[in-house]
Structure prediction request, 337 residues.
Amino acid sequence: MIVVMKPDATPAQIDHMAHHILSLGLTPQVIHGKHQTVIAALGEERPGLTEVLEPGEGVEKVLPIMAPYKRASSELKRERTVVRARDLEIGGTQVAAIAGPCSVESEDQIVGLARKLKQLGAQGLRGGAFKPRTSPYSFQGHKELGLRMLATARAETGLAIVTEVMAPEHVALVAEYADVLQIGARNMQNYQLLQAVGDAGKPVLLKRGMSATIDEFLLAAEYVLDRGNSQVILCERGIRTYEDHTRFTLPLATVPYLHEKSHLPVVVDPSHGTGKSRLVVPMSRAAVAAGADGLIVEVHDDPEHAVSDGAQTITPGAFALLMEQCRRIAEAVDRIM
Ligand code: PEP
Ligand code: MN
Prediction:
């Protein structure tokens, strides 16, 4: 339920309603908007609540939240959420650029690449130290050593580090190094992991599961938000369909649809979304045109010899072109990049 307070409701009345909600066995979340304050009453809904809450002093009206996800819903919060980590700002007027290799391979590789990406206008550096691989025989990542290499690249460039965490028991370690904790597509419904990153208090980039519906995606975000962590970035990275000309199918209607349903920022991953390097720049342009709040792109100095995902990885030269073209498109949709 949402308790909408009158514009002139006093702090005491707001406080009283929050306590009243708590006494009903629900969790109150006070949201101060530009014009008025609303209090979300979160928990299992039951009949008769409206009648109990509506007579409260300073209450204008009580509304149900129709969406199954509550904290993530734009019914609860209309103002857009802006997630910040160092110079990386996602959800404001800027279209953010996060770039880097699929896997962190060596210190020289990640530091050299980070310098180029920074110069080309990226604000975030991606790179996997813990890698979820389809085959157990594939490279699994340099783990803590890889995290240290990322930290060196950040010290050299100031780029915010976006890196994946795969297990609840690794959250503390990865959070020591990362600026943004990435939850991979394969873990989107790993609820204990979602709760653990919710507790870590660091921004979270949540990738859409390859067979998840939008409601399931937003309910996964809800797990993080429900732990009191409001810094969640949604990432469309493509879904599995019958189509096999691309690695996944990248549905860009997700971007405006998520913006309608949720206040959380949305980034697009055209690398995993297509699996083909030559499609990455055009789909980046399309994502910015569709209103994406950011891009997360795989870049490598020598994609042919990348240890993972080389086929969908672009060179720094192609990334320069991507930035140049996307900047122009961003301007056309009243954003900057
Ligand atoms: C990645 O970002 O390298 C990755 C493994 O992504 P996803 O979880 O979307 O497959
Ligand atoms: Mn990858």
Notes: Residues 316-332 form the longest helix (17 residues). The chain has a mean pLDDT of 96. Residues 102, 272, 298, 308-309 surround manganese (II) ion (ligand 2) (CB under 6 Å). Residues 36 and 77 are 12 Å apart (CA to CA).
